[in-house]
Write a structure and sequence with these properties.
The complex is a heterodimer. Chain A is α+β, with helices and mostly antiparallel strands. In chain A, 41% of the residues lie in helices and 20% in strands. The chains are: A alpha+beta, B mainly beta.
Chain lengths: 93, 137
């Protein structure tokens, strides 16, 4: 078991379980990317919340989406939440 | 130790992470876009909203953040750890602070991309390998 100790008086995070969480989220993100074209047909312009390779919530307004998730007692940090753009972008950052 | 950054929105390279700070008391998932043009590692306003963080509750930086889309205010999340999936397993990186971006006016569109900036990247060797960006140290 990996335990990463923070500074004195700070809580510990359990690295092993957090790493498992991160790998699950990464998998959901990869699912989102590989299904993007299909999802765009149905959810264009919307925010989608993904867990275990499926869309659990969606809404055009991010605050409404968060409200829906809050109402059902969901922990938002266990979802991948992505916006499906109506347009294609290139970025200049 | 090598971290792979793969292509995401707008074909930009990005990495999946969990960020922890004792000041938020939980780990939050953040996808950081690699940005050698960003001075500081920053969390977008959208990512703050999605993780129920209000940047105004954190100390305000004396510096504003100038982006392509305009100027936003900066708040500082101190004592951060960023957890990465490296090629060999978990990798934790400690950062003194991460910038939380916040709109100055309510009619300003909020920032969407969180950025892994020079304060982080300067410690890494960056190169490309068959269409994947590698961060190595």
């Amino acid at each position: 078991m990996y335990i990463y100790k923070m500074d004195v008086n700070m809580p510990e995070i359990k690295l092993e379980s957090e790493f498992e969480k991160l790998k699950k989220l990464k998998k959901d993100f990869e699912w989102f990317e590989s299904n993007y074209k299909k999802l765009k047909q149905e959810y264009k312009g919307e925010y989608v919340a993904i867990k275990n390779g499926s869309i659990s919530y969606h809404d055009i307004d991010v605050f409404k989406l968060m409200e829906k998730m809050k109402e059902t007692g969901e922990n938002t940090s266990s979802f991948i939440i992505q916006h499906i753009s109506e347009d294609k972008y290139i970025y200049a950052v | 130790m090598r971290i792979q950054a793969t292509r995401g929105e707008g074909n930009l390279f990005r990495v999946f992470t969990l960020v922890y700070s004792p000041f938020i008391g939980k780990t939050i998932p953040i996808t950081f876009y690699i940005d050698t043009g960003a001075t500081m590692t920053s969390i977008s306003e959208l990512d703050s909203i999605l993780n129920l963080i209000e940047p105004n509750n954190f100390p305000k930086s004396p510096l504003l953040t100038q982006g392509i889309g305009g100027i936003v205010s900066s708040h500082l999340l101190y004592n951060c750890n960023i957890l990465f999936v490296s090629e060999t397993g978990p990798h934790l990186e400690r950062m003194w602070s991460i910038n939380l971006m916040r709109n100055i006016t309510s009619n300003q569109p909020f920032t969407k991309l969180s950025l892994l900036g020079l304060d982080f990247l300067i410690n890494y060797k960056i190169y490309f390998e068959y269409g994947i960006m590698i961060l190595e140290k």
